[in-house]
Amino acid sequence: MAYAAEGADLVLADLNAEALAEVQKAVEAKGRRAISIEADLGDVEAIDAMVTTAIKQFGRIDVLVNNAGVTRKAFMMDITEADWDRIHRVNAKGVFFCMQRVAREMIKQNSGRIINMASIAGKGYRDSSNVAYAGSKGAVIAMTRMASSQLGGNNINVNAICPGITRTALYNTLLETQAKNAGLSMDEMAKVAFDTIPLKLANEPEDIAAMAVFLAGPGGRTITGQSYNIDGGLIPD
């Protein structure tokens, strides 16, 4: 929605067709074009089909926001092989192949901005949902740095955003698990979590979107290979 407000036309991708339709309608209400693609972004064939459709509809891709991600709240010793495979299939494999496939188009046009959604988990934040998730987000940060150096000659900027505690549906699910395990209400658990933030403020989705818009705009022209924390001061790097 933040991109639509800035005048962008959008390709929306998600597993949830109902949610896609709702967002597409809202984008079009702002006078922008939008198409929705129901896709599993851990599937390389689905990624290829998604990008092919985007090019057919719009002719080019100027910005990729690699935002798909999955996790669950779990102690290190409780992570299963199935957990590892599910998390890394989307958070690491999916991010890489979305970057690679979109970069093929951006190289042809000699321009583009790639914005990967990492996390402060990837920098070792101790209260991350689980170790496997932290590893997948660390991979995103490392891939961002390498991709920026390899694509810079094609005028493609690659950066990552590292959110801290952010009020999303996924976070609410994690908070519910924490609250149940701690014997607290959701409000009590949220207070415990938010009190750890130096600014005492959790992110709203709009806080993350603002950085994504900045990195895609004129102000991000010479910024590449960076991983920006948006976390209210939870970690210093």
Give a written overview of the molecule:
This protein is an alpha/beta fold and 237 residues long. Helices cover 49% and strands 14% of the residues. The longest helix is centred in the middle third of the chain and has 29 residues, at 81-109.
Write a compact overview of the structure shown:
With 237 residues, the protein is of the alpha/beta class. Helix content is 49%, strand content 14%. The protein is built from eight helices and six strands.
Label this structure with key terms.
8 helices, 237 residues, 4-stranded parallel beta sheet, 6 strands, alpha/beta, two-stranded parallel ribbon, Rossmann fold, 14% strand
Layout of SSEs?
Blueprint: H1 2-5, E1 10-14, H2 17-29, E2 34-38, H3 44-58, E3 63-66, H4 81-109, E4 112-117, H5 131-151, E5 156-163, H6 169-182, H7 186-194, H8 205-216, E6 227-230
Parallel strand pairs: 1-2, 3-4, 4-5, 5-6
Helix pairs in contact: 3-4, 4-5, 6-7
Structural class: alpha/beta
Give the CATH topology. Rossmann fold
What percentage of amino acids are in beta strands? Answer: 5-15%
Number of strands: 6
What's the shape? globular
Low-confidence stretches: none
Whole-number mean pLDDT: 95
